[in-house]
Recover the amino acids of this structure.
């Protein structure tokens, strides 16, 4: 067992020693550990709900759907691990007959997983699923800004896993930086773009590969050709879930002028349906993580006309679901990722205005388009770039294990979920296998008379 007094370097050394025993490479061992992880989450459901309630006032339903729901990701890995770990045959050209080739996935070694505070449980456990399935040891660093969940993760992992295999190191920026000073075989980071740059810089010093799951401003386009009721419900859900503190929450709306008024009335109706007359009294609406973010978000409220909501209560870190209109394109709320329950609405008369606006900003993590028009859908897919896209919905692409999830450009590097998580934490080793059956002398010196044959083969 590793005691609390061990330094970070000692902990990594213990994990490296354990990794070198080869035990984590055994497929049955990995399968067993995934089952143990599933059991750990299952047995801690109440504790997870309580910790998230204390950190974010997260409603039980949302904790179940978006954090305990990570069980589905574990089950998916359990179901597919045998297929993922099988070496794959690769074709070899006739010139190399009778040789064969195979690709072997192998674990990377000791990996570091750093998490954010918004989904503080699942965004540590979900990458861990990939790390275990691929046969690695892992050090987990949850966010200090969700201290109850961080502590729960530490206790839970200690209870089910040997620290030489998987361990949690709790702490803030300083702890994170101490970890980053060490050599890992992979760093998987979920957090903001600014910190992502710090992570990549630190990793570069040790030539450690990184996955960066970052954020950004995810636009949501609303065409006139929609089912208005379904659209309003799906956007209201995606935006105000977890009080807007989701990396793939629709950040701002681009709405066709023709339907804007009707559509915003429908959003208002939906908000009333979801959270009642006063969302502050709804048990289904979360709070802002801390005072710093509350103040940052409160300042955004001054940057436009409040169409819906706008109420705040600092003592409860409450900000009502808010819709903002008449925002200048230079306003901070249109520059920074919002990451809160404030939805700026911009109208367009021609879709090229909306596309130009999206393209003038860094590539987003997600892009949402509501339209029945297939040509319009294709146009947006062709002309914009984003980590992922949801047509006629928000956020749901995240929950599909067979879809790789990640950003592009400023919204991230690398992908995970399902097989992509396994790939992220694996090295694909190419193996060429010759036989002693034949040994054509074409490649060997002396080359005299052989060049013409080579020229004919290569062309
Ligand atoms: P953050 O970048 O502030 O912190 C993330 C982690 O990095 C924490 O564990 C923190 O301790 C550590 N950290 C912070 N500053 C550091 C520094 N200077 N050096 C080293 N480590 C440091 O992010 P956050 O505020 O916790 O989360 C919000 C951000 O995360 C948003 O931008 C959101 O879009 C993004 N996010 C992305 C995804 C995704 O899947 N792509 C998911 C959730 C959140």
């Amino acid at each position: 067992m590793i005691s609390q007094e061990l330094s970070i370097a000692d902990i990594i050394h213990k994990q490296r020693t354990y990794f070198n025993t080869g035990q984590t490479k055994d497929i049955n061992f990995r399968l067993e550990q995934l089952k143990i992880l599933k059991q750990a989450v299952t047995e801690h459901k109440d504790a997870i709900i309580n910790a998230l309630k204390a950190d974010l006032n997260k409603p039980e339903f949302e904790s179940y759907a978006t954090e305990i729901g990570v069980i589905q990701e574990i089950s998916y890995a359990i179901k597919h691990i045998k297929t993922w770990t099988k070496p794959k045959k690769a074709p070899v050209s006739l010139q190399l007959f009778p040789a064969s080739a195979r690709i072997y996935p192998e674990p990377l070694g000791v990996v570091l997983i750093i998490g954010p505070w918004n989904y503080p449980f699942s965004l540590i456990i979900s990458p861990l699923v990939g790390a275990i399935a691929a046969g690695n040891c892992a050090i987990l660093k949850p966010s200090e800004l969700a201290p109850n969940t961080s502590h729960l993760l530490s206790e839970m992992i200690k209870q089910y896993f040997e620290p030489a295999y998987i361990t949690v190191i709790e702490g803030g920026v300083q702890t994170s930086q101490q970890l980053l000073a060490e050599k890992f075989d992979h760093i998987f980071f979920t957090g903001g773009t600014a910190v992502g740059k710090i992570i990549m810089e630190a990793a570069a010093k040790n030539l450690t590969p990184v996955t960066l799951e970052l954020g950004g401003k995810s636009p949501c386009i609303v065409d006139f050709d929609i089912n208005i009721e379904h659209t309003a419900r799906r956007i209201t859900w995606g935006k105000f879930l977890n009080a807007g503190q989701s990396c793939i929450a629709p950040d701002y709306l681009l709405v066709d002028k023709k339907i804007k008024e009707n559509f915003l009335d429908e959003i208002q109706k939906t908000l009333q349906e979801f959270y009642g007359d006063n969302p502050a009294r709804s048990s289904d609406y979360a709070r802002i993580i801390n005072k710093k973010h509350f103040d940052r978000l409160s300042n955004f409220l001054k940057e436009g006309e409040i169409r819906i909501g706008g109420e705040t209560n600092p003592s409860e870190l409450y900000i009502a679901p808010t819709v903002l209109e008449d925002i200048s394109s230079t306003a901070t709320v249109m520059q920074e990722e919002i990451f809160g329950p404030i939805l700026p609405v911009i109208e367009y008369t021609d879709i090229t205005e909306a596309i130009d606006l999206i393209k003038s900003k860094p590539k987003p993590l997600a892009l949402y388009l509501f339209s029945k028009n297939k040509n319009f859908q294709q146009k947006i897919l062709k002309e914009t770039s984003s980590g992922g896209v949801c047509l006629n919905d928000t956020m749901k692409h995240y929950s599909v294990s067979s879809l790789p999830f990640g950003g592009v450009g400023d919204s991230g590097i690398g992908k995970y979920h399902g097989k992509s998580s396994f790939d992220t934490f694996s090295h694909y080793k190419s193996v060429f296998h010759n036989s002693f059956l034949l040994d054509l002398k074409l490649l060997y010196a002396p080359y005299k008379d052989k060049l013409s044959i080579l020229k004919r083969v290569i062309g």
In short: The first strand starts at residue 88 and ends at 90.
